[in-house]
Design goal:
Layout lengths: L1 H11 L18 E2 L4 H7 L2 H6 L18 H16 L19 H18 L24 H8 L2 E4 L6 E4 L4 E4 L10 H14 L7 E2 L9 E3 L12 H15 L4 H18 L3 H12 L16 H11 L4
Parallel strand pairs: 2-4
Antiparallel strand pairs: 1-3, 3-4, 5-6
Helix pairs in contact: 4-5, 4-6, 5-7, 6-7, 7-8, 8-9, 9-10, 9-11
The structure holds zinc ion.
Zinc ion (ZN) binds next to helix 7.
Length: 318
């Protein structure tokens, strides 16, 4: 925990080179880092219990969704998932036969990316609409479209960048750069949310953040103006938060993973949506509670997605 807090605080520290997120420049949208502290939580997730070993995919005793067995995930990875995400590294089968503790970073990278693709592609929804009391007149969100296809349609490449200090999205060539530090064997939900966030920056029409009027990064170009029930428009934070609340409340992923998704979405509502009334209405609709006060310390936040947000804060060097 100590190193976690240190890292978060160090990321939040002002930096001389910090600048607003420069999507308009076409160079990048924002820096991001996917894993960090929450990876430790996710490693204990029940999702992972089935993720590597190739056990049966579907159905726990409670009807929970599970990641597919390794052989099935491998087929998807080498086929449709790579085709959608367009990684710039050579195709290789998932290392299904190896123990987790001896996987290379490249093998972990492939597992994490494949899992994120699976979550984007194959999450099972328990219901398909929030038709009553729409936040937007005439609205009422239906279940997310196939978000793997959505992400795939917006990005031109997924790059494994061993030189970059942090992961980031690059508007110039429509790519997401991921670094070795982004891969630590996770369930896929956090990385999937990261892909959604960044893809919103990269696709057409592109999206850039606005200056924060709330949260812990006031004055930085790191927030969205509002949030709505729109999986195609709105801001990067807004779409990711919307998707996460669907994961939290309308998916069959294990309870621990859904709770973490809820925690992250809640954090985004508090810290990254300028329109507090809209964020509160969203919270009431999806969490049946008003937004709680902002946490006193960034260590109170959850989820790997938060690391991405923290990176946005620092405006690091992309
Ligand atoms: Zn962003």
């Amino acid at each position: 925990m100590a190193w976690t807090i240190f890292l978060i605080l160090s990321l939040l520290a002002p930096r001389g080179s910090a600048r607003a997120e420069g999507f308009v420049s076409g160079e990048q949208s924002d820096a991001l880092q996917s894993i960090g502290a929450a990876a430790a939580q996710l490693r204990t997730s029940s999702v992972l219990q089935d993720a590597k070993g190739g056990r049966a995919a579907a159905g726990g005793s409670s009807g929970e969704q599970r990641l597919p067995g390794c052989a099935a995930l491998n087929r998807l990875w080498l086929g449709r998932f790579r085709a959608q995400l367009k990684p710039d590294w050579a195709a290789a089968p998932l290392a299904c036969a190896k123990a987790q503790n001896v996987l290379s970073i490249e093998e972990i990278r492939d597992f994490d990316t494949a899992r994120a693709a699976y979550v984007l592609d194959s999450t099972q929804w328990t219901d398909t609409s929030y038709a009553s009391q729409p936040l937007v007149a005439g609205g009422g969100a239906s279940a997310p479209p196939n978000m793997l296809e959505w992400v795939g349609s917006r990005i031109r490449a997924l790059r494994y960048d061993t030189q970059a200090p942090y992961a980031y999205a690059e508007g110039g060539d429509g790519s997401i750069h991921l670094t070795p530090g982004d891969f630590k064997m996770e369930t896929g939900i956090g990385l999937a949310a990261q892909f959604i966030h960044e893809s919103r920056h990269l696709g057409f029409p592109a999206y850039g953040h606005v200056v924060c009027k709330v949260g812990d990064t006031i004055g930085y170009s790191n927030c969205d103006p509002t949030i709505a029930e729109d999986f195609g428009g709105g801001g990067s934070h807004a779409i990711a938060a919307l998707w996460l609340v669907w994961i939290a409340h309308r998916s069959r992923w294990p309870a621990a993973d859904r709770q973490q998704a809820a925690d992250v979405a809640n954090w985004v509502l508090k810290m990254r949506i300028n329109d507090r009334a809209a964020a509160d209405a969203f919270s009431m609709r999806y969490f049946a509670q008003h937004l709680p006060p902002e946490p006193a310390s960034p260590s109170a936040v959850y989820g790997m997605y938060v690391w991405l947000i923290v990176r946005c804060v620092a405006g690091l060097p992309y």
